[in-house]
Amino acid sequence: MSRPRVRDDLALVEGYHSPQVSVDVRLNTNESPIAPPAAFTEQFTAAVATIEWHRYPDRSASALRAKLASHYGVRAEQVFVANGSNEVLQCLLLAYGGTGRRAAVFEPTYALHSHIARVVGTEVVVGQRTEQFDLDLDVVREVITANQPEVVFLCSPNNPTGVVDPPETVRTVLDLTRDYGGLVIVDEAYGQFTPTSAVSLIDEHEALVVSRTFSKTWSLAALRLGYCIGPSWLIASLEDVALPYHLDAVKQLAGTIALDFRKEMDERVSFLVEERGRLATALADLPVSVWPSGANFVLFRPENRAGAEVWQELVDRSVLVRNCASWPGLDGCLRVTVGTRRENEAFLTALADVLRASSVLGSASRSPVPGKESA
C-alpha cells in the first residue's frame, strides 16, 4: 500500500514532549505543587451537574471571557480563550503566520514558539540572547530590521531561563514593528510570579497581545485552559481561525469558577516565590551555576558534571527535573520546578548527594597509586 507523504517541511520536525517518569518527586513541567482549594472542587462538581450534555457549549465562551475581562480591567471582546496557551499561540500563528511569513524568536526560549510556527508553515528567524540570557536590544533591532517578521515572540518570565524583560523592552519592540505592521506576542505563562506585565500596554492601536494560562498559578494544569488579551480586532481574527465549539463546557465552567478564588491563588504565588528564593539560595551553596528567575522554576548548570548525567542520577534517586542540556544555548543546563517544601528538600538532598558522589569519585581518580609517590 502506498502511504500518504507528510509535508516536506514537517518531515524533520520533532514533536515537543517532556518525560513522564514514575518518580516520588516530579519537578520537571512547572505545574503548581498545590491543588486548588476544596471549595473550588465542590463548586465545580456541583456546576458540572447542570451541564446540558446534549447541547454544544457556548461558542463564544462569553461568561469566562467576561470574568477574565473583569479580572484584568479590559473588555470581553479583548479576551480570547482556548485549550491551553499553546492553542492560543497556534491560533495567533494561523491568523498572522503561515507560508511566506516569518516569526522571530530569541533563543534560548520556549520551544513551542518555533515549533508551532514551523507546523503552520511559518519561517522562523532566530536571534541569540546574551550569556546571562537577557535580550540584547541591538540583536533584537538587527533581527527585526533585517527580516521584518510578521510575528515577534517575547517571553517574560522567559522559559526555561526565568529572565524577566523590563517593560521598556516591550515598548522598544513595539516601536520597531509598528511601521511595517508586525505583531508582538508576549508569552506570560508565568506572569503572576513577577510584578510587571505587558497587559498594561494593551491598546486598540497597538499590535500587541499577551498570552497566559490557568496551568501554573491557578493550579489547573489538568484542565488545559489558556487565554490571551489584546485589541478587539486581533481577538476577532482568532475567532475566525479557531475551530467551532473548540472550548468545551467543562473548561468554561472550571475557568469561570477558578477566578472566584483569586485570594487563594495569590497565596500560592507568594508561597512559591518564597520557596523559589530558598531554592536558589541553597543551590548557590552547591557546585552549580544558578540564574535569577522570575518564574516558578530555577535554571542551573552543574559545574563539574554533564547535565544529562546529573539528570539521570537524580531520576535514579526518584527525583525528576527537566533536562535542558541539548536545547539551543543551554549546554549542560537543568531546570527545576519549585515544589512543596518537602519536594524541594528531597531535590536538594538528592542533588547534593549526586554532586558529592561525583566529587568523591573525582578525588579518587586523582589519588596517587599506592606505593608510588605522586608527581
Secondary-structure map:
Elements: E1 25-26, H1 38-48, H2 62-72, E2 79-82, H3 84-96, E3 102-107, H4 111-119, E4 123-128, H5 137-147, E5 151-155, H6 167-178, E6 183-187, E7 208-213, E8 226-229, H7 232-241, H8 249-258, H9 262-284, E9 288-290, E10 297-302, H10 307-316, E11 319-320, E12 322-323, E13 334-337, H11 341-366
Parallel strand pairs: 1-11, 3-4, 3-5, 5-6, 6-7
Antiparallel strand pairs: 2-8, 7-8, 9-10, 10-13, 12-13
Helix pairs in contact: 1-8, 2-8, 3-4, 3-7, 5-6
Which stretches are poorly predicted, pLDDT < 50 over at least 5 residues? 363-375
Q: What is the structural class?
A: alpha/beta
Strand content: 5-15%
Major sheet description: 7 strands, mixed
Written as H for each helix and E for each strand, in order along the chain, the element string is: EHHEHEHEHEHEEEHHHEEHEEEH
Any idea what the shape is? globular
Rg, Å, rounded:
23 Å
In the CATH hierarchy, the third-tier topology of the largest domain is known as: Aspartate Aminotransferase, domain 2
How many strand segments? 13
Distance between the termini: 69 Å
Total discrete domains? 2
Can you give the mean pLDDT?
Answer: 92
Q: Write out the CATH superfamily name of the largest domain.
A: Type I PLP-dependent aspartate aminotransferase-like (Major domain)
Number of helices: 11
Main-sheet strand order equals 2-8-7-6-5-3-4
CATH architecture verdict of the largest domain: 3-Layer(aba) Sandwich
Task: Give the helix level as a range of percent.
Answer: 25-40%
CATH class placement of the largest domain: Alpha Beta
Keywords: Amino-acid biosynthesis, Aminotransferase, Histidine biosynthesis, Pyridoxal phosphate, Transferase
Cofactor: pyridoxal 5'-phosphate
GO molecular function: histidinol-phosphate transaminase activity; pyridoxal phosphate binding
Pathway: Amino-acid biosynthesis
